[in-house]
Design a protein that fits this description.
Layout: H1 6-10, H2 21-35, E1 41-45, H3 54-60, E2 66-69, H4 71-80, H5 95-107, E3 111-113, E4 117-121, E5 130-134, E6 143-146, H6 149-161, E7 164-168, H7 181-195, E8 200-203, H8 206-214, E9 223-224, H9 229-235, H10 241-247
Parallel strand pairs: 1-2, 1-7, 2-3, 7-8, 8-9
Antiparallel strand pairs: 4-5, 4-6
Helix pairs in contact: 4-5, 6-7
Length: about 250
Amino acid sequence: AHRAHGSTEGIARLLPSYAGRTMQAELEALGSALGEPVRPVLAVVGGAKVSSKIDLLENLVSRVDMLVIGGGMANTFLAAKGINVGKSLCEHDLADTARKILAAAEAANCEIVLPADAVVAKEFKAGADNETVALDAIPADGMILDVGAASIATVTAKIDAAKTLVWNGPLGAFEIAPFDKATVAAAQHAAANTKAGKLNSVAGGGDTVAALNHAGAADSFSYVSTAGGAFLEWLEGKELPGVKALEA
């Protein structure tokens, strides 16, 4: 739906056209998450790079009440605030962009939640020696691969405070234990709140679905999107040609 293909946008100009049931479910779920959500709304955005999610972050700060930033992209925000992130994945050239997003969030009264502590290791491999340290104690030769107990406690508290959750991207390098701890804890907490009827939870994006499945939480979310790029563009506030054609 995010591309103007002949089989979607094109044919809708020529013949009576309808959304299929899967697309209908998707649009209804996304509408409940960001279109007309029950507030407060919490967005959890993770993943490796800020560069791939600038549009997403800029749109979300004006739409949600709280925004948790995790994964490798959080390191760019920490560095922009003057924290030494050692050898962690970090886009130092995007420091100004990160500061701009933080300022936009403040102006829109959106609370940004960054990591409060870090799980660091010298190498990225399963079972690597690691330690949880304060942000001012990240070793020069260390890599941040997950967040620690203090950060997990903050994220779960934000999930408790929210009525609606939009999730895109993991909080750490969840593919390799033990750096999956924060993502699993947050996903399971969101799943439990959803099951208890306290939360409308909508998630999407390739890594996100894999992370929720890894945590055993996907089945308990209100809705897990089957769309990849289209879900991301919708979150970015972009017009989707395949949806626009149906509205006509």
